[in-house]
């Protein structure tokens, strides 16, 4: 199945692009940092016969323009909530990848009666008290740096846009897509070049200020606060060799959510929907149908 075309919502936080296709109960999918709605192409191919799939381009990612205000985890979650309300999704399942898993977690914590199932992909928590302290300090430092740099990145946006086609041409020339992907992917031979190229294109399309502010949400205390309010049965699905959220961090998240089930895919890194799409979507589909 091909990707559904982009549609648009006019939200209080600004215009937001999304893709929608399929029939059945709604399934809201939220991409990660540097991603976009189209990397859920496998969901539309394998789950659209059972679910009404809505995949967002968060503000500043994919086709969506950057928001007028900040783009932290809390701010981008607010945009996703506005989208949920604008689409009148009264009862739904949510799936989020990496940064998008943080968004989904916050939504499930804020709307426990609406979110009936939650899938958190390639996401984790600190593995120890010392690591939690280090990540908290990193969060404070990154938020400070972001606050200082964000105004300048807004000023530079037109010039960065002029450079983007040249950057895209450079980074799409082999072997550079593989070099970029190797930072997150376990086995590059598992991903066809068109999928790699799509990921690189989406990464380069990310607004610089939004990317910086979203990255500064690492260690955001909103995540731990939300966990206490999540009621939905939760699938925690990750690659066993994920270099960004190691298996121990993913296990720590599972232990913090007693209603969760943990699945680790072998020989898989940070992007399981691209690295092992059959196993990934089979696992996700079984969880949603349970």
From TrEMBL:
<feature type="domain" description="AB hydrolase-1">
    <location>
        <begin position="25"/>
        <end position="277"/>
    </location>
</feature>
<dbReference type="GO" id="GO:0016020">
    <property type="term" value="C:membrane"/>
</dbReference>
<dbReference type="InterPro" id="IPR050266">
    <property type="entry name" value="AB_hydrolase_sf"/>
</dbReference>
<dbReference type="GO" id="GO:0016787">
    <property type="term" value="F:hydrolase activity"/>
</dbReference>
<dbReference type="InterPro" id="IPR029058">
    <property type="entry name" value="AB_hydrolase_fold"/>
</dbReference>
<dbReference type="Pfam" id="PF00561">
    <property type="entry name" value="Abhydrolase_1"/>
</dbReference>
<protein>
    <recommendedName>
        <fullName>AB hydrolase-1 domain-containing protein</fullName>
    </recommendedName>
</protein>
<dbReference type="InterPro" id="IPR000073">
    <property type="entry name" value="AB_hydrolase_1"/>
</dbReference>
<keyword id="KW-0378">Hydrolase</keyword>
């Amino acid at each position: 199945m091909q990707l559904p075309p982009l549609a648009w919502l006019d939200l209080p936080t600004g215009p937001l692009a999304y893709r929608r296709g399929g029939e059945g109960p709604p399934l809201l999918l939220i991409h990660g940092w540097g991603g976009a709605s189209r990397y859920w192409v496998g969901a539309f191919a394998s789950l659209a016969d059972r679910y009404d799939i809505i995949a967002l381009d968060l503000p500043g990612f994919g086709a969506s323009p950057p928001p007028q205000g900040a783009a932290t985890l809390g701010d981008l979650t607010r945009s996703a909530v506005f989208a949920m309300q604008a689409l009148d999704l009264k009862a739904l399942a949510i799936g989020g990848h990496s940064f998008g898993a943080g968004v989904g977690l916050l939504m499930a914590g804020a709307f426990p009666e609406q979110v009936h199932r939650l899938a958190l992909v390639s996401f984790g928590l600190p593995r120890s008290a010392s690591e939690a302290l280090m990540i908290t300090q990193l969060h404070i430092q990154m938020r400070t740096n972001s606050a200082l740099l964000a105004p300048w990145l807004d000023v530079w946006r037109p010039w960065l846009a002029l450079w983007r086609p040249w950057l895209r041409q450079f980074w799409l020339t082999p072997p550079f897509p593989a070099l970029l992907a190797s930072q997150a992917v376990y086995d590059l031979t598992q991903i066809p070049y068109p999928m790699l190229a799509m990921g690189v294109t989406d990464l380069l399309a990310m607004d610089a200020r939004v990317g910086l502010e979203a990255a500064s949400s690492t260690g955001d205390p909103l995540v731990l606060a939300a966990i206490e309010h999540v009621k939905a049965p939760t699938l925690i699905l990750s690659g066993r060799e994920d270099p960004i959220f190691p298996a121990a961090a993913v296990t720590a998240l599972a232990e913090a959510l007693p209603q969760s089930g943990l699945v680790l895919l072998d020989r898989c890194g940070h992007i399981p929907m691209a690295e092992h799409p059959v196993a990934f979507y089979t696992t996700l589909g079984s969880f949603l149908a349970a």
